[in-house]
Amino acid sequence: MNRLIYCALSSRYGANLELRILMRQTAKAFGVDSPKTARCSTPERLKAYAQFTAKEAMRAIQDGDDLETLHQKLYEMAYALGNRIRRWLRPVDKKECLAIVTQLYRNIGIQMEEEAPGTVCVRKCYFCYFYTPEICSVISAIDQGIFAGICQGGRLAFYERITEGCDVCRADFG
Question: Which tops the pLDDT comparison, 165 or 41?
Answer without folding.
Answer: 165
